[in-house]
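Shipment paperwork, digital attachment
Item: protein structure file
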Amino acid sequence: MVGEGVGSVFGRKLRVMTFGESHGPAVGVVLEGVPAGLPLAEQDIQRELDRRRPGQSPVSSPRVERDRVEILSGLFEGKTTGAPLCLVVWNEGADPSSYEQVRTRPRPGHADLPYLLKYGHVDWRGGGRSSGRETVGRVAAGAVAKKLLSSCGVEILGHTLEAAGVRVEREVEDREIRENAERNPMRCADPEVARRMEEEVLSAARRGDSTGGVVEVRALGVPPGLGDPVFDKLDADIAHAMMSIGGVKAVEIGEGTRFARMRGSEANDVIVLRDGRITLLTNRCGGILGGISVGTPIVVRLTVKPTPSISLPQRTVDLERGEETVLELRGRFDPNLCPRVVPVAEAMLALVLADHLLLSGRLNPDRWGGKG
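Attachment content:
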């Protein structure tokens, strides 16, 4: 009996299909719906992939990958043709031998068991499609989406708000994210908090354990009117996009869970006139009301669970022997996922917003010289 396929497509007007496995030959993405005439170069995509790739600091996996992108189709003479863009990255640091021990023993906290229960078998080489390496395709596609958004004056910012129990306990300015987030391994906008985050993350890692945290992404310059009521709300699509990232267990828009402890008089954003324009005095709604953007910054927070791969002994079941056993993992693990989730979350937010701008007809190819 043939089982169901693994869902790998996202978006409506701008459609993304990622492909490849963690320890297969390559990973990548096919991006359909990019208008013709957009100036694009491999450097635009490489810049974002370099932010995501492993082996850059003590708080990321030591797996060595250059993650060099190749554009196989959809580009001619430096401009998109309107045909599907195929972006591929060849796996150079694949080493499935370290996963032989989990061939018959599903790893606690991973997708091994549910994949096995659903499909009858699992790619035990680092999790295959469920590996964080799948996000290479997302980030590559997100780089194209960011290029589209920049033509409309939309900017995406991301940073680590909390890691290993250490949190930035104040309002972070957009300027701080631009200036500081890429200057420390934790991608935190506050350098002093970043230092304490790193200390706690590495302390847990030395004990063979991992930690979780919170990533925040913002979209600035988003026009009002994106999104539709009821089932196609903008925040519903954003939540879908963020929850599809491995390791993300909760998504908040604006004040998020803090709304539960507020009164309506505190939660509501007062409507005011500023320079003849209607806007909100505050932004507790996170830029979205009734599923539709209101023109204020969109603010999204993601709760990221601790990396499930740890070197401490864990109980599992040996599927061949049909008995409980103990598993001690060996390999190359991220002690905290947040720094590498930041560019992935930025990419997914960019893809959702570019999709909605295309759906609303607000992405005009004439702005960059295209005619599509």
